[in-house]
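Page header: ASSEMBLY MODEL / three components / 865 residues total.
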Amino acid sequence: MTVTTNRPADTGDPAVGGAGSRVGDSRRLRGAVLGVTGLAMLMLVVELLPHTGVVHEQYLPPTSRILAVLVDQLGSVEFWVAVGETLRAWAIGLAIAVVAGVLVGMVIGLVPALRALTASTIEFLRPIPSVALIPLAVLLYGTELRSTLLLVVYASFWQVLVQVLYGVQDVDPVAADTARSYRLGVWGRVRYVVWPTALPYVMTGVRLAASVALVLAITAQLVIGSPGLGALIARAQASNAIPLLYALVVVAGVLGVVINLVARAAERRVLAWHISVRREVPR
Amino acid sequence: MRGVLRRAGLALGLPIALLAVWWISTEDSQNFYLPPLRTILRAFVETWTLDRLRADVAPSLARLAAGYALAGIVGVTLGLLIGSFRWIRALLEPVLEFFRAIPPPVLVPIIMLFAGIDHTMKIVVIAVGAIWPILLNTVEGVRSVDEVLVDTSRAFRLGPVARLRYLIVPAASPQIVTGLRQALSISIILMVISEMFASSNGLGFTIIEFQRSYAIPEMWSGILLLGLIGFLLSVLFRVVENRVLAWYHGLRRAQRSS
Amino acid sequence: MRRSFVALTAIAALLLTAACGGSSDDEPQSEGTTTIKVGVIPIVDVAPIYLGKEKGFFARRGLNVVMESGQGGAAIVPGVVSGQFHFGFSNVTSLLIAQTKGVPLKVVANGVASTNRVGADFGGVVVKKESPIRTPKDLAGKKVAVNTLKNIGDTTVRESVRKDGGDPSNIKFIEMPFANMPAALQKGDIDAAWVVEPSLSVAKDMGARVVAWNFVDAAPSLTVAVYFTSEKLAKENPELVRKFTEAINESLAYANAHPDEVRDVLKTYTDIDQVILDAMTLPLWPVEINRESVETLARLGQADGIFSKAPDIDQLLGPATDSQ
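Prediction written out in full:
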């Protein structure tokens, strides 16, 4: 009997499976309404604070002003090009990190000798903050896409790798023995035993890596100046255009939320068969 | 004896090999920006004297500790609150998800507008960035407490405080610890980033200074030190985690082998 | 199970194609044009190169110039040395520091200079309206914000204080981005700030007043920043460098003569507000580098201890000729 379900998730998932019941629907509707209310409250607070003089308008423009500038930006080609660049860096970096993470993780996880050998190195390299690599990235690639990628891949790779290692470790020994007694080769074992067990962990790793990749992509662009949303933010700062700064920050936040939602949806899709097997505690 | 040797060999084998590769491949490096490892190591020893460690690294670590502690206390408290009441969670979830997605380095200039320029600002930056994994994981941990146990505790007429103390917190602790671990790495990153602005001391500040004044071997030595500190802190975290969650690790092990 | 496999592979394939299909870096070049990359910061100072590109001064010489914005000398200098950028823009003090460290650079053209007019320069030291600070010597012992420590900001401010008879040795310099300075000033986190346009106009808009014109005080007609290249490029392709220098010089002269067009071109690469654009003081863009002012900056920097040894100006600017 478990005390909690062990999912390295970082926020709640709405009820999965068993959808369609009346109770589930109205609950979800209520949740959505409350969520929207929460957002509306935030926007109201940000609108009122500068007007009432609690905070100087220079530091925090009211919501109406931020939204106005944001709408303006949506009509600008340059803005969309920057968003495209950011998403491009994000996508490429994430893809590389996921592929590398899964491959390396599988190989290390399946060979106990390798795991023992690499454990200390992984523990040392993992906590190195990606910002420490910024000088290196600048030196190697200047302000090109590749310097952004260096940071994105480095940070996201570890997220995936760690999760894959957990996953491979979690293989049910009975299932593993069964596979061996059926004389399934390494590839067979991977395909029928290891991969399905590791898949939830891989998806968690992909989801975490997706968020990290976006944050690093924008950070790299902000600090280094490679093209993208981060560079636009830096420019707004340099030009002392505070409402624009806030508007772009809002865009960054929205992008992150969207990516998180997409990752969550993908996770649910891919793991649809699995969740009904696992003990998920929906609430 | 052989067991210890073997373990040490496994732990150090690959790192030593990698260091050797680094050493050899950069030995004759003419590249201004990628000096030989030997030069970097020499710079390391020369730069990071006890004095310098005290003057620059100690303030950084102190701010890190303060920011992390702040994030931990506020994050867990709020997380327990939000996780316990479904309507609060539904109300705040989009807002929290939104703030969490904002890259912390972007927040620094904004926070500077409010929090000023010295220690306070840096501690606030670290806390604001590190709180999210703690908060969200705590909420998740509270949410996934086994329903049966909650009902049982209610049947035994445990008041809310007692329930919190004897059921919810222990049950959610593995998840909370996960959040605390993620928050640690974020805190280190933000410690460095917060020192890139309005700073006069600190590890991040020193690395950037070196970079600006073209003291490249010293810059690399700083990066090495940063990695070392990150590694030591994560080892420390693991030691503490193993003590606090010993019951949980044992439970999982038993489950897996049953 | 197979479906999830396929799904994952599909996602990976999609991401990879998005990666490969999006490259727009290659532009078709007409016969005889060379594409050159110039590392700049998106600030007022580099308006001439944007204006010059618009006017075709570069195209006329067969140069397709592409501006890449970095975040300051820290990103641009390594870029030039590694060949990422053909040319770069940086303030003089940063280049002097690089020179003392043996970074192989060569200055090719002037970048921007002070207007040399007290009361109307593009950079100065501001204080809050109610501040008791009135003259540069009052800055002694105070907290002054600059955008980069141990660089042109603090050296010139110290000179301002010195010239006014004050003691610059215990001014506390604090590093922060220009954009944060007006707010920090208002809140009292700092006592004074060295700002350049557009932050200068923003600060004045908030009621701040200027107590020191540090560019003017440091040296007459101070050359503040220049365009530079790597020694390697200068040696291997002097023709390219010559053409670039000519085009820049033409752009500088044009910018000086057409301030309205400068204000217009600023809209294309910065986000400066229109109101501020109209109010700002534009810098001067002389074609000649004021060698004497560079020597003064070297001297001041050495006095303040930011160089490990005396910078070799001949190596950076080339040997002094009679016309300088």
